[in-house]
Amino acid sequence: MATIGYARVSTTDQNLDAQLTQLQGVGCDKVYQEKASGAKEDRPELAAMLDYARQGDTVVVCKLDRIARSTKHLLNIVEGLQDKGVTFRVLNIDLNTSTATGKLMLTMLGAIATFEREMMLERQLEGIAQAKQAGVYQGRKPTAKAQAKQVLELLAQGKTKQAVADTLNIGVASVYRIAKENKV
Predict the structure, then answer these.
(1) C-alpha to C-alpha distance for 85 and 7, rounded to whole angstroms
(2) What are the backbone dihedrals phi and psi of residue 33, each rounded to the nearest 5 degrees, phi first?
């Protein structure tokens, strides 16, 4: 019976130190760690951890949002663990799926986490809409269109569309689009 930790941060700028300290503090025998968005369900270390866990083991995370971003994904993970006879613990809320109360709490907290994320995204979209209306937010500047003159010059020199794309570090589809718009 092993205690298995899982630690995750979303970006390479963030570090795992606090999570690793907590997981080692509760006696994790093995800790899987990765830097990947929680929205991605195909995280290699998560998959390896889920594959590694055996009957009688306990999987531990520091916070619920470290393992899943949606209720559906969370419940799929926990159901898979339960099918294997593996207990799931969340340290910051003292949740343990070996109890009926823990199972109920997990379902409720997963729903709340999804709700919070959807509310945050909704507020973000409202803010972007207001900024656009005020003329403050223009969106991401097009990278290829800003280089249209250079694309046309390189094409005029006889370079292939792929060579132009490689030279300017833009997509070849953008080169084709610029060429078509300029009837080259």
Answers:
(1) 21
(2) -140, 145
Collect contacts of 152-158 with beta carbons under 8 A, ≥24 apart: 152/178, 152/179, 152/182, 152/184, 155/179, 155/184, 156/184
Residues whose CB falls within 8 Å of the CB of residue 9, separated by 6 or more in sequence, listed in order: 15, 16, 19, 35
* 3-state DSSP of 39-62: CCCCCHHHHHHHHHCCCCCEEEEC
- Beta partners for 8? 34
Catalytically active residues are: 10
Cα 142 to Cα 91, 135, 170, 174: the distances in Å are 44, 17, 11, 10
Helix (H) or strand (E) holding 149: helix 148-156
Q: Report pTM.
A: 0.59
Query: What are the mean pLDDT values of the chain's consecutive 10-residue runs (184 residues total)?
Result: 93 86 95 85 89 96 86 84 94 90 82 82 91 84 82 92 90 90 85
Residues paired with residue 4 on neighbouring β-strands, in sequence order: 30, 59
Token pair recorded at residue 38: 């929680």
Structure tokens, 131: 């900024």
